[in-house]
Amino acid sequence: MTALITRDELKAAIDAKTVTVVDALGGEYYAKQHLPGAVPLVLADVDAHAATVLPDRGAAIVTYCSNPACPNSGQVADRLTALGYTDVRKYREGIEDWAGAGLPLESQV
User: Fold this and answer.
1) Please, what is the end-to-end C-alpha distance for the chain in angstroms?
2) Which of 31, 44, 47, 60 is the most buried (most CB within 10 A)?
3) Which Pfam families does this UniProt record tie to the protein (predicted)?
4) How far apart are CA 11 and CA 32, in angstroms?
5) Starting from the edge strand earliest in sequence, which strands make up the sheet with 20-23, in order?
6) Pick from 25, 26, 41: nearest CA to 80
7) 56 domain residue, yes or no
8) Residues 6+ apart with CB under 8 A from 41
């Protein structure tokens, strides 16, 4: 099971630039809004693109999706771990919690 990270811990890591944040929703969801600095990577693309998007298998990585009911972040985290990434955590509460707390989001629209 993937370790979890709290909103406050994630915010501190993003502010310190010590984490790579992975948006497991991708597509138009990512384009509309995502956590600061997040890179899109959905489960279907992990095997083909992880090495390019996440070249350092020892780097701190946090996956997220929309909310605790969304399975995407856990699935991407599990697959990254299976591929040899050693510091993968999941922000279970997701972008809905982040936005609900009034924290900044980015957009490509």
Assistant:
1) 34
2) 60
3) Rhodanese
4) 20
5) 3-4, 88-91, 61-64, 20-23, 39-40
6) 41
7) yes
8) 22, 23, 24, 26, 49, 50, 53, 54, 76
In a domain, 48, yes or no: yes
Spatial distance between the Cα atoms of 26 and 104, rounded to a whole number of angstroms: 18
pLDDT at 4: 97
User: Does 29 reside within a domain?
Assistant: yes
Which structural domain, as residue segments, surrounds residue 94? 1-99
**CATH number for the domain that contains residue 31:** 3.40.250.10
Is pLDDT of 1 > 90?
A: no
Check: CB of residue 21 under 8 Å from CB of residue 57: no
Structural domain total, the chain: 1
What is the pLDDT at residue 2?
87
Mean pLDDT in the chain?
Answer: 96
